[in-house]
Amino acid sequence: MVKPYSIAVLPGDGIGPEVIAEAERALEAAGDRFGIEFTLRRFPVGAAGVAAGGDPLPEVTREAVTRADAVLLGAVGDPALDKAPRHLKPETGLLALRALLGVFANLRPVSVHPALVGRSPLKADRLRGADLLIVRELTGGLYYGEPRGRAASRAVNTLAYSVVEVERVARIAFAAARRRRRHVTSVDKANVLEVSQLWRDTVTAVGREYPDVALDHLYVDTAAMRLVAEPAAFDVILTENMFGDILSDEAAVLAGSLGLLPSASLGSGPGLFEPIHGSAPDIAGRDVANPIGAIATVAMLLRHGLGLAEPAHAVEQAIFLALEQGARTRDIAEAGAPALGTRAMGARIAGLVSSPPVPLSVRRGGTSSVPPLPKGEGVRG
Ligand code: IPM
Ligand code: MN
């Protein structure tokens, strides 16, 4: 028998546990359909880690994640800990987790489902063709630089990158571009920052290894503007930690809701997979959060974490179909229109993973992409 994949599940705080329950449901559905076994074990992180073990990344969690095949995380953050000392903040647990796993490349794809074009505040004609991938450096830059600290009347953070740190994330971006539209836009602030000058020079040098991929550079202020003015101009955006954090929330506006978007964080060990949204304490526990970001994260876990392309595709298809059929959570519903709760949306998508509708091409009698049905067998659907 094939050994089950071991997934460490870190639901975290706020809406994290609710959306993760639906992500697990989609993962189990994919496993059942494709005959793959997953062992899901839950561990605390964030405020839940502080509550359980006095640490936003308790030892039991540290140990589990390094041994897992992949890590699935909900969200961290709790306003009750906003003023806590840094070592007790939920966000500190997340940063420590990223550092522990060495996941230096954070992939944040953003595309616009045709049925949700009207949900974005941007004009429909701007959104046409928008389909981009942000590759955010995740374990360096301002989030981790030393020295850091705060005194009464002054505070310090440090922005530093080494050539090696830039090279390795750049290679991920160029490799991803090869599987897409072969265009990398590197985002920096090289007109002001020495770190950005090193970033730009290093990315340019790595780019020579990928002569088939076009490379251009934008200052982050210009990139922020172009992202909403002309989003279809981007394919892969490669940028440092803080710029990537900001630009990815901005890019979520294209999709229509932050609640839709997944991410994968990759290094040399187990990958870390989390939706890009936060813990949303204001809507936690009310069955209204959108689980699609977390379920789309399961697809990234399957593809990038476990190398299981077919089940990954099935999960993505199920999300696409649910939206096409008009399934909407509150954040993406038309004003005043009825909306599904978190669990109902999760159930709908899991159902479509388990038994997808027969593709149109089959209903019409088969095409080359679908094997012909045996004679006399009825077509479902
Ligand atoms: C994200 C989040 C985190 C980040 C926070 C919670 C530390 O905003 O994943 O984008 O800034 O990286
Ligand atoms: Mn963020």
Written overview of the protein:
The protein is α/β, with parallel strands linked by helices and 381 residues long. It starts with a strand and ends in an 18-residue tail after the last helix. The protein is built from 13 helices and 12 strands. The longest helix has 19 residues, at 16-34. The protein folds into 2 domains: 1-107 and 256-381, Isopropylmalate Dehydrogenase (3-Layer(aba) Sandwich), CATH 3.40.718.10; 121-255, Isopropylmalate Dehydrogenase (3-Layer(aba) Sandwich), CATH 3.40.718. The strands form 2 sheets. A 10-stranded mixed β-sheet has the order 2-1-3-12-11-4-5-10-8-9, sandwiched between helices. It has a two-stranded antiparallel ribbon with strand order 6-7. A hairpin with a 4-residue loop joins β6 and β7. Bound molecules: 3-isopropylmalic acid (IPM) and manganese (II) ion. Manganese (II) ion (MN) is lined by residues 245, 249. Manganese (II) ion is lined by residues 245, 249.
Summarize the structure.
The protein is an alpha/beta fold and 381 residues long.
Give the number of helices: 13
Beta-strand fraction estimate:
15-25%
| Small-molecule binders | 3-isopropylmalic acid, manganese (II) ion
Describe the largest sheet: 10 strands, mixed
- Uncertain ranges: 364-381
The radius of gyration over CA amounts to 21 Å
